Amino acid sequence: MRSVSLIGFKPFAHYHINPSQELVRYFSTIAPHSLHTLILPVQQDGLFQTVSEHIQTHKPDAVIGIGQAPGGTIRLERVGLNVADFRIPDTAGAQPSAQPLIEGAPDAYFSNLPLQGLQQRLLDASIPTTISDSAGTYLCNQLLFTIRHIQKEHTPEAIGGFIHVPLLPSQAAEHISSKRPGPAPASMSLETMREALQHVIEYV
Ligand code: PCA
Q1: Within a 10 A sphere around the Cβ of 11, how many other Cβ atoms?
Q2: Which of 20, 37, 60, 188 has the most CB atoms around its CB within 10 Å?
Q3: DSSP classification of residue 185
Q4: Ligand 1 atom 8: the closest Cα is on which residue?
Q5: Closest atom of ligand 1 to CA, residue 18
Q6: Which atom of ligand 1 is nearest to 12's Cα?
Q7: DSSP of 40-104
Q8: pLDDT of residue 21
């Protein structure tokens, strides 16, 4: 069986929960030996080092980053850009503006997960899934870029990519009850996200 690593994020900004952390926790409790997990703070400082150690220790055949993003679909990200341009500070207070993530590295790395096959599998399971051409310029983009950069150097046969999941219903409800500006966000249940991730783990 192929070994898979799931990497998620802790909560950030005004959120008290991050569905990616909930998903990674869930899979770590039911994990077979071939599944590795890592939860990162939403901080630029230390991300490269932590992810690099994780990949070099476990040498997973597939690495899947996960994070939350507003929207109504599971988003299979196509590309990570070599840039950090944070709209809000990270949880350590850093807010780089149009900075390269790694000087001298390529401008971008593509995910090499089988995006189209994955999308079809999730759609066949009635899970709304899109392929996204921008993971943003915050920590999720940074994680995707970092995963592929490290894989190219240390585990060149491996595949890696990133998946954005929507907010949880509790986060959308909180948005409305706390009268945050903007329209009520879309959401997806944790059960559906788990089912999606289960398909992804089986497919890659
Ligand atoms: N989402 C953020 C970072 C952590 C997360 O879950 C992003 O989309 O960059």
Answers
A1: 17
A2: 20
A3: P
A4: 140
A5: 6
A6: 4
A7: E-S-STTHHHHHHHHHHHH--SEEEEEEE-SSSSEEEE-EEES-B--SS--TTS---SSB-SSTT
A8: 98
- Ligand 1 pocket check for 63: Cβ under 6 Å: no
Six-digit token string for 59: 């040498």
What is the span of the domain harbouring residue 139?
A: 4-203
Ligand 1 center–CA 145 separation, angstroms: 13
Q: Tell me, what's the pLDDT at 31?
A: 72
**pLDDT at res. 1:** 66
For the stretch 117-164, pLDDT in tens is 999 999 999 999 999 999 999 999 999 999 999 999 999 999 999 999
Question: What DSSP designation does 160 have?
Answer: E
pLDDT at 189: 98
Number of domains in the chain: 1
Residue 37's domain is classified under what CATH number? Answer: 3.40.630.20
| Residues with catalytic function | 77, 140, 164
Ligand 1 contact, 140 CB (< 6 A):
yes
**pLDDT, position 2:** 87
